[in-house]
Specification:
By secondary structure, the chain is of the alpha+beta class. It contains 17 helices and 18 strands. The chain has helices at residues 2-18, 25-30, 65-74, 129-144, 162-170, 183-197, 201-204, 240-255, 260-274, 294-317, 319-328, 336-345, 349-361, 390-398, 536-548, 566-571, 580-596; strands at 100-106, 148-154, 174-178, 208-212, 221-222, 225-226, 382-383, 386-387, 417-422, 434-439, 446-455, 461-465, 468-472, 478-485, 488-499, 506-514, 519-528, 557-558.
């Protein structure tokens, strides 16, 4: 926190040196006046009493320059429905440039039987070292759009060409020793790690090596930072050694979560910073960091104050809003797990307005992101013995909701589906997940209202809800979703990967992007009528469907849908029909007017 404050103070000094505009009356007025032409920006963004018109945001009793910068740098999301949102393309362009190569160094024997710590919250047993490494290879390729190559190498046995294998390992940009336990395997890996540490500094600057889940620790290195022999330069936060140490700590923290998403992101963060190539998945940051160019930080700071001064002032002055910013200040906003949980813990209109102005409306940080296209997931082509049509696909979404658009055999409940388990570590672990799909008033599009329970970072249990616009995709069984989530527009591409004829289960795959914060994400959901897992005899067939979507069963997180759980009782009844009742009333009114006309 101290280092970040120093960065901010340096940026303020640089900006003042460049321009005297901070004290000009015209700029102070600019801090309070927003252009009212944007139809999605609420009036609260522009409301300013006349007696404030001559007061600078820097003179506000609760707003310091450090707080202003930290406030505006930290938010990436707060929930408000939006009727129409822009839809970004679901196509991405694969770069021909190779950023680097990852090698997973596995045991000489037993890699296919030794279990890892992945999948401890899944409905299946934890995967073996070999199975986990194979899937991590795929995810590294998908997340990096093929710009990061990943391979598996086993510790050589006596009859193999040891020197050739060593040479291969020496050339790896990222070397991950994974699940080694035998003394001979550890000795081999230790020798390789030592040889890489003694290599040319220009080569080491773009390399890292880490031992994960090994019986004996091996000193990690990340670029110029050597865990076993740290340089004194690491005490100076602006140095390359200090930057490498921060990356080391961040990578190990992500590895320790034992999720495939976090593991892959850790690797991409390393390549984005040290390979010389940008990795689209993680190239954007809305944080104040030492790694950013000072001129760029100064420009961002100037833009935030001049364009969104009122929003910053209002948020800092509010106890709840400021608490959220303080909590976000402790995390890297590219860490979707912690940043999203933090934001949903403090949702408010002030947070929405804050992020809407800084990120969505003005895109202060120049972020962009497109919906991932890998892996390619095919929708079902038939259902109940007939070719799937757009109408039938929409009725499958409506599912078990008590609605005239629901298919035959639905349970006629208050919800369409309940999530039994999900595959995205940031968004699919919340308890009590309800899905409600229904037609819009015009009958052409649909709405999707997820209602889920959040256990906040300060120990409360509360309900959250979203309101997505849903349109048909290019083929039946695919859909385009859009939502304004905490002031940030997210666009998603959903696919029905599989569904039982009797509606006893359904599998969705989704790929999404929040362009204004530069975030991409993938996920999948296994849903049932009551949120319980399907019968054991159905599991193998369901797991095969999941694998077609690039999801391994051990990546799933079982959702707690127990209505008698202490958190569910504390939260009270879920607001399931918060939006649905209004849409149904509007449909009845429209139908009555049509009949009378």
């Amino acid at each position: 926190m101290i280092s970040k404050c120093i960065v901010i103070l340096c940026l303020v000094a640089s900006l003042i040196a460049v321009s005297k505009a901070f004290v000009s009356p015209s700029l102070l007025a600019c801090c309070r006046n927003q252009q009212s032409s944007n139809k999605y920006v609420p009036n609260a963004l522009y409301a300013t009493s006349r007696d404030k018109s001559e007061r600078s945001v820097f003179r506000h009793s609760k707003l310091t320059p450090a707080e202003a910068f930290a406030a505006a740098s930290r938010l990436n999301a707060v929930s408000t429905p939006v009727e129409e949102t822009t839809t970004s393309s679901d196509c991405t362009t694969k770069s021909s440039e190779i950023a680097g190569k990852v090698i997973f160094l596995l045991p000489s024997n037993g890699a296919d039987t030794t279990q890892t710590q992945f999948g401890t919250k899944s409905p299946v047993e934890c995967p073996s070292v070999l199975d986990a490494a194979k899937h991590l290879m795929k995810k590294t390729s998908w997340f990096s759009e093929g710009t990061v190559e990943a391979t598996i190498v086993h510790v050589p046995q006596e009859d193999q060409n040891v020197e050739d294998i060593k040479a291969t390992l020496m050339e790896a940009d990222a070397l991950i020793a994974f699940g080694l336990s035998a003394d001979s395997d550890l000795n081999f890996a230790s020798n390789v790690f030592d040889a890489r540490r003694q290599g040319d500094s220009s080569v080491k600057s773009r390399q890292c090596q880490v031992a994960i889940d090994c019986r004996k620790s091996l000193p990690a290195t990340v670029s110029s930072f050597d865990k076993s022999n740290p340089s004194l330069l690491t005490t100076f936060p602006w140095t390359k050694d200090a930057s490498a140490m921060r990356m080391h700590d961040q990578m190990l923290g992500l590895f320790d979560r034992w999720t495939s998403d976090d593991f892959t992101v850790a690797l991409l963060l390393f390549f984005n910073q040290f390979s010389g190539s940008e990795i689209e998945w993680v190239k954007h940051s809305i944080d104040a960091t030492w790694e950013k160019d000072p001129i760029r930080n100064a420009k961002e700071f100037y833009a935030m104050i001049s364009k969104c001064g009122d929003c910053i002032t209002n948020c800092i002055a509010d106890e709840n809003c400021k608490a959220c910013l303080n909590a976000l200040n402790a995390v890297d906003t590219r860490d979707q797990v912690m940043s999203y949980r933090t934001v949903v813990s403090y949702e408010s209109e002030l947070l929405r307005d804050f992020s809407l102005c800084i990120l969505q409306k003005n895109n202060i940080f120049g972020c962009d992101a497109t919906i991932p296209t890998a892996p390619k997931v095919e929708p079902i082509s038939a259902w109940r013995g007939k070719p799937l049509t757009f109408e039938a696909a929409r009725s499958i979404l409506v599912g078990h909701l008590d609605d005239e658009a629901a298919p035959e055999g639905g349970a006629k409940k208050d919800v369409s589906w309940e999530v039994a388990c999900g595959a995205n570590v940031a968004y699919d672990q919340f308890p009590s997940q309800n899905q409600i799909f229904y037609e819009s008033v015009n009958g052409k599009d649909m709405w999707y209202d997820p209602v889920f329970r959040v256990e906040t970072i300060d120990g409360r249990s509360v309900w959250c809800k979203r309101h997505y616009k849903v349109r048909d995709g290019p083929v039946p069984g695919t859909f385009r979703f859009s939502v304004l989530d905490n002031g940030i527009t997210s666009n998603e591409f959903w696919t029905i990967v599989g569904v039982a004829d009797d509606l006893s289960w359904i599998i969705f795959h989704y790929a999404g992007a929040a362009s204004a914060v530069g975030q991409r994400y993938l996920g999948g959901l296994l849903c049932t009528p009551d949120g319980s897992l399907p019968n054991k005899e159905k599991e193998e067939g369901i797991w095969r469907v999941l694998r077609r979507a690039g999801i391994e069963p051990w990546e799933l997180y079982v959702v707690n849908n127990d209505p008698n759980a202490p958190g569910a009782i504390e939260a009270g009844p879920p607001p399931l029909h918060y939006y649905l009742d209004g849409v149904r009333a509007a449909k009845r009114k429209r139908a009555l007017a049509k009949a009378e006309g």
